[in-house]
Amino acid sequence: MVAYQLCNNVRARLSPLFFFLNPFTSTFARLQIGLTRYRFCYRPFLHARYKWAMTLSKVLAVAISLRDDGATPAFCNGTDTSPISVGACQIYVVKFTDGTTWAVRIPRHTNSHLPPDSISTIVEAEMRTLAELSQAGFHWSPRLIGGDASFNNPIGHPYLVVNWVHGSVLKWTDTTPHQQREKILRQFVDIQLELLNRTKKSQDGFSALKYLQDIVDGRIQRVIDGQLPELDTRSCFVHRALLRHAVSNDLDASLSVIVHGNLAPHKIIIDEELNIKGIIDWELARRRPIQMGMGFPRLLSVEPANTDLNAPRVDNTVQVADALRPSSKLLADRQFVISHLLSLVHQEAFLGVTKEPSIVATMLRVLSEADVDWRDRIIDSCFSKGLCRWMAARSWLANETRDISRVPSDEDLDKETQEFLNATARSAGMTREALLETLLPKKG
User: Which parts of the sequence belong to the Aminoglycoside phosphotransferase domain (predicted)?
Assistant: First the structure.
C-alpha cells in the first residue's frame, strides 16, 4: 500500500516534466519527417528545377551567340515550362524583338539505348541534310541556323537551331472533307517533285539494286554471326532475290535524291487556309535511290500492323490477301494524285519541256504500277528489321507480286549466295556449302 502511494506521488511530481517533454518529442519527430521528405521529395524536385532553369539559360545563351547583334530572345509557345516533344526531341521556341523565331531542337533519346556517338552522328547527319537542302534552294525545310553535334557545348548535349515554321500540324483522317484533301495533296505532290528535282544527283557507277543489296548483305552477316536471332538466313536471301523485281530496271543505274524517310501528317505544317508552310523533322532523311523518293508518302501508304521485331511470330499460312489492300478512301486519294501527275505530264508535253521521260512522267509510271505497295514494302524492308520479319512470316506476300515467276527458286537463292560470297570481306570463315546449309528449311 505504501509502495503504491509512493508511485502515485512520483508520477504526480514528474507529470509536468512529461508535459514539457512531449512537445519537444513531437517537434523532433516532425523535424525527422521533414528531413526525410526533403531528402526523397523536395531535394530531387529542387534539383530538377535547378537543372531545368540551367537548361533554359543555356538555350538562351546559345540563341544569343548565333545573333550578330547580341539580341536577347524570350521563350514563346510555353516552351519555357513545357518544351514541345516530337519523337525523341525536345524543342524550345525562342522569339526575338524583331519577330525572328527559332526552334532549338535537342534530341534526348531518353527512352533508347543509343550511345553518345550514335546521337552525335544523327544530329550531324540532320545538320548536313538541312544544309544541303538549303543550298539546293529547297525552301520547304527549316533553315539551319546553327548547331553542335558534340556533347562539348554550353547545353552539354548535341543540338541544332532552325527557323520556326509557323502554323499547325496537318490533321489527316478519313473524315477530312474532299476539297480539303485535294488541296493538300496537290500541294504535297508539287513539293515532292520539287524535292526530287532540286536534290537529284548523278553518281558514276551508282546502282539502286546494289545499294539495297549491300544493306541486306550487312544484315545477312549479322544473322550469320548470331546478332539477329529474330531473322533467319534463308529469309534474308529471299529478300535479296526479290529486290531484283522491286527495283525498276530503268531506275537502277540512275539518280539519287534526298528522301525524308518519315513523312507522316504531323511532319507537315499548314496555315489556317490549308496552305503547306513547311516540312519538319528531317532526322531520318538520307540520300537514297530516286525510286524511293517517288513513292507514296506515309499518309497515302498502306502500313502493315504490328511490325515490332519482338512481336510474336505468325504462321506463314495466315491469310494475307488484305495485307496491302488500300481502303476506298485511300484509293480515291491516290487516284487524285495520279490525275494531278497526269495533268502535269500533259502540261509538259504542251510546252515541249522535254523529249525524254521527265521526273513527273517517271513518278507517274512508278505510282501507277499494280504492285506499287508490294515493291515499296520489299524496298522498305531493307531499312526495317521488324518489317523484314513481318514480310518473311507472310512468304513475302507472294500472292501480291502479280507474277508467280518472281518467287525465288533454289537456283535463284544459289545465285544470291554466290554473289554474297564474292564479297571477300564477308566470305571469311564461311564456305559456300556451309552457307547453303543455312538455307535449308528448318525441320519441325
Answer: 90-287
Residue with the three cell numbers 549479322 = 222
Spatial distance between the Cα atoms of 89 and 279, rounded to a whole number of angstroms: 16
pTM listed for this prediction: 0.82
Q: At 2, is the pLDDT very low, low, confident or very high (cuts 50, 70, 90)?
A: very low
What is the maximum span of the chain, computed from C-alpha positions, in angstroms? 128
CA 344/CA 210 separation, integer angstroms: 32
The contacts found for 226-231 with CB under 8 angstroms, 24 or more apart, are 228/385, 230/309, 230/310, 230/385, 230/389, 231/385, 231/388, 231/389, 231/392
CATH match of 74-164 with 1.20.144: no
- Nearest CA to 252 out of 203, 197, 301 is that of 203
Return the C-alpha cell found at 90.
525536345
pLDDT at 205: 84
Q: Cell numbers at residue 431, please?
A: 564456305
- Are 163 and 145 in contact, with CB atoms under 8 Å apart? yes
Q: Answer whether 134's CB lies under 8 Å from 109's CB.
A: no
The residue with cell 496491302 is: 324
185-214 CB burial, b ≥16 within 10 A, e <16: bbbbbebbbebbebbbeeeeebebbbbbbe
Strands (E), 168-300: 168-169, 201-202, 255-259, 268-270, 276-279, 286-289
Whether 223 contacts 268, CB under 8 Å: no
Angle between helical axes of 328-351 and 178-199 (0-180°, round to 10): 50
**CA distance linking residue 196 with residue 363, whole number of Å:** 10
Model pLDDT for residues 43-56, shown as the tens digit of each residue: 554 445 545 677 89
C-alpha cell at 313: 511470330
Amino acid present at 16? P
Of 60, 263, 63, 91, nearest in space to 165 by CA: 91
Cell, residue 397: 506476300
User: Integer distance in angstroms from the first to the last C-alpha of the chain?
Assistant: 92
Q: Which of 287, 203, 214 is nearest to 253 (CA)?
A: 203
Alpha carbon distance 32, 177 (integer Å):
63
* CB 274, CB 180: distance < 8 Å: yes
Could you count the other beta carbons within 10 Å of the beta carbon of residue 256? 20
